[in-house]
Design goal:
Helices cover 0% and strands 55% of the residues. With 341 residues, the protein is an all-beta fold.
Length: 341
């Protein structure tokens, strides 16, 4: 079985003393992870990576210094630049490639924006065709004084654009006009105040939302009219000495389990969602410090840990879904995102 190619982006955020080196290219082969090289040196402070269908073009969002959306053509073990543009709204922290239309969507954390960028046949991005700025606030004065869009994704079932706003405890649903590249808002889904929603994953009619500020996993029924919150359960060790800040959430390939990375306690929570309602089955040490992102490839899960600067690997039990640490850590400077193609 051939290995899965993956890309790891690193970010220093607002700490220039931290090491970062472009985008790392790695091969994922079960418990064995091989660093192929580091490429795209211009893609510094990479906050998120996405690929268009087929995996021939990789998109990178970068915080500083230029706050860009860049495109890179995959050429063997290298990434060749296709072009970059200012990210609509600035300081993009998440990207989504539309599965059937030539657009990349960017979530702007600082200004609470959702931007739509057309791309040409080669995959190079153009200036935004539409930028929507959210308004509002939440109860946390430090993190929710204004809107902060932390994720944008495409609902794989209904085709809607979902924008997750940490600052306002809201999920905005949009419909993308594939002709004009403009968004029309469908509705807004209110989450419990103080949730601070960061990322979500859609499984069928339900969205599972990781709440960064409340350390929760919230289930939303997307098929209800209007959509509604079904239940909320805790994630992470909220009684431990370190405050818990959930980051990434991923689903197993069969959709039976969700995995939540918890910064602070540095754990990986396994939730059985086969009944629709999440039941926590295990909390596993992540093997590093401050897990920022996860990816599932086959029967393995891979975590990147920002402060310890490494990638850790877990085998997923096919029956229980529970991860078990395998293999050795692989050093990657200040990783913030991992993309498997």
């Amino acid at each position: 079985m051939s290995p899965t190619r993956a890309y790891v982006g690193g970010t220093v955020m607002d700490d220039p003393s931290r090491p970062v080196s472009g985008i790392a290219v790695v091969n994922l082969n079960g418990p064995h992870v091989t660093l192929v090289g580091r490429t795209a040196p211009a893609a510094v402070n990479t906050t998120y990576l996405a690929a268009r269908p087929g995996g021939d073009v990789v998109y990178a969002a970068a915080y500083d210094p230029a706050e860009t959306l860049s495109a890179w053509r995959v050429a063997g073990d290298e990434l060749e630049p296709l072009g970059s543009v200012p990210a609509g709204g600035g300081r993009a922290c998440h990207l989504a490639v539309h599965p059937s239309a030539p657009f990349v969507l960017a979530a702007g954390y600082r200004d609470g924006t959702v931007a739509v960028h057309p791309v040409d046949a080669a995959g190079a991005p153009a200036a935004a065709s539409h930028v929507i700025a959210h308004t509002g606030s939440g109860p946390d004065p430090g993190r929710q004084a204004a809107a902060h869009v932390h994720m944008v994704t495409i609902d794989p079932v209904r085709g809607d654009v979902l924008a997750v706003d940490l600052g306002t405890d809201t999920i905005h649903r949009y419909r993308l006009d594939e002709g004009s590249g403009r968004l029309a808002e469908l509705d807004r889904i209110a989450l419990p105040p103080g949730t601070g929603p960061r990322h979500l994953v859609v499984l069928g009619d339900r969205a599972y939302v990781a709440g960064e500020l409340a350390s929760t996993l919230t289930v939303v029924d997307l098929a209800a009219s209007p959509p509604r919150v079904v239940t909320t359960v805790p994630t992470g060790d909220t009684g431990g000495p370190a405050r818990c800040y959930p980051s990434a959430i991923r689903a197993s390939l069969d959709g039976r389990f969700c995995y939540v990375a918890n910064r602070g306690p540095n754990t990986l929570d396994t939730f059985d969602v086969s009944s629709g309602a999440p039941v926590r089955r295990a909390s596993t040490g992540i093997g590093g410090d401050y897990p920022w992102d996860l990816v599932v490839a086959g029967r393995h899960l891979y975590a990147v840990n920002q402060r310890s600067g490494d990638l850790t690997t877990f085998a997923l039990d096919p029956s229980t879904g529970v991860p078990e640490r395998v293999g050795a850590s692989v050093a990657v400077p200040s990783p913030a995102c991992i993309l498997a193609v």
